[in-house]
Specification:
Layout (H helix, E strand, L loop, with lengths): L45 H21 L8 H31 L4 H18 L4 H6 L4 H10 L1 H4 L2 H7 L9 H13 L1 H14 L1 E4 L2 E4 H6 L6 H17 L1 H22 L6 H6 L4 H13 L2 H15 L4 E2 L17 H15 L1 H12 L3 E2 L11 E3 L8 E3 L6 H24 L8 H4 L1 H17 L3 H36 L6 H16 L3 E2 L13 H4 L5 H19 L4 H10 L6 H5 L9 H20 L4
Parallel strand pairs: 3-7, 4-6
Antiparallel strand pairs: 1-2, 5-6
Helix pairs in contact: 1-2, 1-3, 2-3, 8-9, 9-12, 14-27, 15-27, 16-17, 16-18, 16-20, 17-18, 18-20, 20-24, 21-22, 21-24, 21-27, 24-27
C-alpha cells in the first residue's frame, strides 16, 4: 500500500512521549528487553532476504495479473486479488516492523539505522508494483461494487476496507504522480524524520559539570527540589537552543512538503487528510477542540492554581508543571510489583482481558528497561496478525510508569483482538479510536491503585497525579493541536521563523495552562522536542478524543456493568471495520453530539472538585 495517499504500512507508534529518563531502575527484578526472534533472528537473517525475494516476485506477478483488469473483474476475482494483495502487504509489514522495532530499541546504533533505511528503500521498490491496485480500486463504479457485495459474501467482508480506502478518492492523483510521490518519500519526508529521530536520540544536556542524555534531564523536571527542576529546565533549553536551527529547518521542510502535497490533492485544510485517515468528520474534531478550549478555565486553570497553593508559590514557572506534590513519599514500584498491579486491574475487569494481559507479561514482548541509546518514549506496535504486538517503554518504578504499562497493554490487547479477527488490512484502527483500549486500561489501573491505597495523603497524591495525566492528555494535546494548526497555516504563507514558532508555542501554552504560569522566553524552544509534530502531523488530537471518549465509556461501565465487558471486547475486535458512530451506539453514546464531549470533560472536572474539597496538604 502506498504511503503517499493511503494509510502507512509501517504503523506509527500508537502512543509515545518524550522526556523519560534513561537511568535503569535498581531492583531485584529488572525491567525486561524484548525478543524479536518471533519475527527474524537478526538483521542478517537469511529469511529476510528470502522474504524480500519472494515478495518481489509476488508483487511483479500481481501487477502482471491485475493491472488494468480490475474494471472487468468479477466479485470472486476481486476477492482473489484482495487476498493476494493482503498477503504481500503483510509480508512487507513483517519486515518493516522488525526494522522499526530494532531501530526503536537501538536508535543511536548506526548499523540499525542503515538497516532500517535499507528496508524502507527495498519495500518502496516492491510497493511500486502494487501502487496501481488501490488507485484502480478507487476508480471502480459504486453501483457495481454494491452489487458485488450483495452477490458475494467474501467480497462483502471487504466492504469496510474498500469503504475506508475510497474516502481518499476525491484526492487521488494520476498513477504516475502517485508513483513519484511514493518514490520521493524515501529521500524526502522519511529522510527528514530519520534525521530528527537520530538527532534527538543523540542529544545530551550539560548539568552539574556532566553531560546527560536529554531524556534523563527531562525526568528531573519531576524532582521535588525546585532549584534542581530549574537547573534541568535551563539545561534542556540550552540544548534545544544549540540545535534550534536544525529543528526549525526540519519542521519548515516537512510542513512545506505537506502543504505542497495537500495543495496538489485539493485538501481544504491541513488537518483534513488526518481526519480522513481517522474516519472522523472535520466538524467532530472542531467540536472537540471548541469544547476543550471552553473548558480550560474549569480544568487546567483551576487545577494549576490549586497546585501553586499546595507548593506555596504565587506563580508557577514551566519547570513547576510536573513538580511532585509536597509531603508525599516518592514511592518506587519494582517491575514485578508493577506487572502484578496491571494484571490484577485487567483481570478484575474481565477474565479474558486478564489472560491477554498475562500473555504480554509472561512472554518477551515488552522492552521496558530504561537504557541508553533507546527511544525515550512508549508505544505499542501491532506488527502483523501472524505474529503479535510488541510494547516499548522506559520503566523507572514510578506510579506513572505503571500507568504507562497499563496504557500500552491496552493498545497491545486491542491490536491482538483486532488482528486475530480482521486480518492485516482490516484490523487497523483509526487514531481516534486507537486510544480507547489504552486509556480505558489506564482508568482500570488507576481505580485499582486508588482503592488499594489506605493513606489519605497518598490517595490525594494519586488523584492529583491522575488529574495531571488527564490534563496532559486532553488540555495539553489540544494545545499541541492548536499549535500545529497555526504553524501549518503560517507555513503556507512562507517559512516560519524560530521567533514566530516560539511565539505561537508560548501563546497556546499561556491560553491553555492559565494565568498562574509565568512562561520565560527559554520555554519558547520546547515545541521542538515533541516527536508527534514530525512523525504524524495532527496526530495529537486523537489523545483528547480517546480520553474524553473513554471517560464517557467508563461512566457507562460504572452505571451498567452487566454485559459491558462483552460489548467492549466486541468493539476492540472490530478493528477498523466500524466507524465511531457504529462502535459507540451499543453503549448509547454519540460523538457527533456536542454534549458527548462535555460528558467526558465533566469527569475531569469532577476529580478536580474532589481535590478542592479535600483537606489541605
Amino acid at each position: 500500500m502506498t504511503t503517499s495517499l493511503f494509510m502507512p504500512r509501517f504503523a506509527s507508534p500508537l502512543h509515545s512521549h518524550a522526556g523519560t529518563s534513561t537511568a535503569a531502575l535498581q531492583g531485584p527484578m529488572p525491567a525486561p528487553r524484548w525478543d524479536l526472534s518471533d519475527l527474524y533472528a537478526a538483521p542478517d537473517d537469511p529469511a529476510i532476504e528470502a522474504d524480500f525475494t519472494r515478495l518481489s516476485q509476488q508483487a511483479e506477478a500481481f501487477a502482471a495479473r491485475w493491472k488494468g483488469a480490475l474494471k472487468e473483474a468479477s466479485p470472486a476475482d476481486l476477492v482473489e486479488a484482495l487476498t493476494c494483495y493482503e498477503e504481500i502487504e503483510e509480508g512487507l509489514g513483517k519486515i518493516g516492523s522488525y526494522a522499526q522495532l530494532l531501530f526503536a530499541a537501538h536508535t543511536t546504533d548506526a548499523a540499525c539505522g542503515r538497516f532500517a533505511q535499507s528496508v524502507r528503500e527495498r519495500s518502496t521498490e516492491i510497493s511500486a508494483h502494487l501502487l496501481f491496485f488501490p488507485l484502480e480500486l478507487n476508480r471502480l463504479d459504486d453501483a457495481a461494487l454494491e452489487a458485488g457485495f450483495a452477490a458475494n459474501k467474501e467480497l462483502a467482508s471487504w466492504k469496510p476496507y474498500l469503504r475506508d480506502l475510497r474516502v481518499f478518492q476525491p484526492y487521488q492523483l494520476s498513477d504516475e504522480v502517485e508513483r513519484v510521490l511514493m518514490d520521493l518519500s524515501v529521500s524526502g519526508r522519511n529522510a527528514w524524520v530519520r534525521l530528527f529521530d537520530e538527532t534527538m536520540a543523540g542529544l545530551t544536556a550539560h548539568l552539574d559539570g556532566k553531560d546527560y542524555p536529554l531524556g534523563e534531564v527531562f525526568n528531573r523536571l519531576t524532582d521535588s527540589n525546585r532549584a534542581e527542576r530549574e537547573k534541568a529546565a535551563k539545561a534542556i533549553s540550552a540544548t534545544l537552543a544549540k540545535h534550534n536551527k536544525l529543528l526549525v529547518g526540519i519542521t519548515n521542510t516537512l510542513a512545506k512538503d505537506k502543504a505542497t502535497i495537500d495543495t496538489m490533492r485539493g485538501y481544504p485544510r491541513p488537518v483534513s487528510s488526518r481526519n480522513r485517515a481517522n474516519m472522523v468528520e472535520d466538524e467532530v474534531v472542531d467540536a472537540l477542540t471548541q469544547a476543550v478550549e471552553s473548558s480550560f478555565p474549569r480544568l487546567s486553570h483551576r487545577y494549576y492554581s490549586m497546585k501553586a497553593r499546595w507548593l506555596g508559590l504565587d506563580k508557577l514557572e514551566h519547570w513547576d508543571r510536573n513538580a511532585p506534590l509536597p509531603n508525599v513519599e516518592d514511592k518506587r514500584i519494582d517491575w514485578e510489583a508493577g506487572k502484578k498491579i496491571v494484571y490484577n486491574a485487567y483481570q478484575s475487569f474481565d477474565a479474558d482481558m486478564g489472560a491477554y494481559a498475562n500473555k504480554f507479561l509472561t512472554n518477551p514482548w515488552i522492552d521496558a528497561a530504561a537504557v541508553p541509546g533507546k527511544s525515550s518514549g512508549a508505544f505499542a506496535h501491532p506488527v502483523v496478525p501472524s505474529a503479535h504486538p510488541y510494547l516499548l517503554m522506559n520503566y523507572h518504578g514510578r506510579a506513572r510508569d505503571v500507568m504507562t504499562l497499563a496504557h500500552e497493554m491496552g493498545h497491545g490487547i486491542h491490536q491482538l483482538l483486532a488482528g486475530q479477527k480482521q486480518g492485516y488490512l482490516r484490523s487497523s484502527t483509526p487514531l481516534t479510536l486507537a486510544e480507547t483500549a489504552s486509556v480505558f486500561g489506564e482508568m482500570l489501573t488507576f481505580q485499582s491503585l486508588l482503592e488499594a491505597e489506605t493513606s489519605p495523603q497518598r490517595r490525594h497524591h494519586l488523584l492529583a497525579s491522575k488529574v495531571e495525566d488527564m490534563l496532559n492528555t486532553v488540555v495539553r494535546q489540544i494545545a499541541f493541536y492548536q499549535f500545529e494548526v497555526q504553524v501549518h497555516d503560517e507555513r503556507r504563507k512562507g517559512e516560519v521563523s524560530a521567533e514566530k514558532l516560539g511565539k505561537i508555542w508560548r501563546d497556546v501554552q499561556t491560553r491553555s495552562l492559565g494565568p498562574i504560569f509565568n512562561f520565560t522566553p527559554d520555554y519558547d524552544l520546547y515545541w521542538s522536542y515533541i516527536p508527534h509534530f514530525i512523525h504524524a502531523p495532527f496526530y495529537v488530537y486523537a489523545y483528547a478524543f480517546g480520553d474524553c471518549l473513554v471517560n464517557a465509556l467508563y461512566g457507562v461501565y460504572q452505571d451498567q456493568p452487566e454485559g459491558f465487558a462483552e460489548k467492549y471486547k466486541e468493539m476492540l475486535a472490530a478493528g477498523g471495520t466500524l466507524r465511531h458512530q457504529e462502535l459507540l451506539a451499543p453503549f448509547g453514546l454519540n460523538a457527533g453530539d456536542p454534549a458527548f464531549w462535555n460528558r467526558g470533560l465533566d469527569v475531569i472536572s469532577g476529580l478536580i472538585d474532589q481535590l478542592e474539597a479535600a483537606p489541605a496538604l
